[in-house]
UniProtKB/TrEMBL annotation:
KW DNA-binding (keyword) present: no
Cross-referenced InterPro entries: C1-like_sf, PKC_DAG/PE, Rho_GTPase_activation_prot, RhoGAP_dom
Designated name of the protein: RGAP1 protein
Segments forming domain Phorbol-ester/DAG-type: 1-42
Gene: Racgap1_1
Record lineage: Eukaryota, Metazoa, Chordata, Craniata, Vertebrata
Rho-GAP domain: residues covered: 55-246
Matching SUPFAM superfamilies: Cysteine-rich domain, GTPase activation domain, GAP
Keywords: Metal-binding, Zinc
Amino acid sequence: VIRPEPCGVCGSRIRFGKTAIKCCQCQLLLHTKCREQCPCPCAPRPHHHSWPREGVLADFAPSTPPLVPALVVQCVTEVETRGLTETGLYRVPGAEQMVREWKRRLLRSGGVLPALSSVTDIHVVCGVLKDFLRGLKEPLVTFSLHPAFLRAADIVDDAACDTALCHVVSKLPPANRDTLAFLMLHLLRVSCSPECKMDVFNLSRVFGPTLVGHSSANPTPLAIMEDTPRQCKVVARLLSLPPDFWRGFVGTEQENLVPL
């Protein structure tokens, strides 16, 4: 054992350097002394949707609504459990190596997620969520709808802007729409925490490039320069929409969003 993990039979941790037994079928890990208490025959884990290293959001979404990937739910739940008193949430970077390692573990798990409670630094959890969203083949605001989001955010009249944004949000693929709604509600909670010191403006600067992106996978340098301030504007406008609008997509099935 290199990383201490709990025994699947007795529940106590198998310490560093100790020998353990692992089932090749169900991946159950246990102390050698607990072998006699091991359930037999083993119960192979159900075949979960296999997660690719990269893909569009729908590749990671569950089959029942709300269509929010388990990785996103678990990261958000962990942040809201113990991170809403941390200054600079999502702005302060987590250790890059830890972020990469935990993202790799979560993607390899294919939906059977290891507990993030063992990650001491909450900024690492924030980094995993941002890195996952950045690594998608297409941002939450899809390439085809990207121009429509920019146009809607540019509308000067607030009421007309809100109406246009609500309309274009409803056109997103269901997984993108539900995940965007889930994230908007989360970011609103972060913005309301005085300890975080992350208001809507700060959050929109962090999440603009990640959630809105560009209109193609390979934007020109000019497009990158022109898009950056408009990406932030879109996220700020989305965060100004009424929370009840976002709850309409994820609120009715909120009980399904409990992390595995």
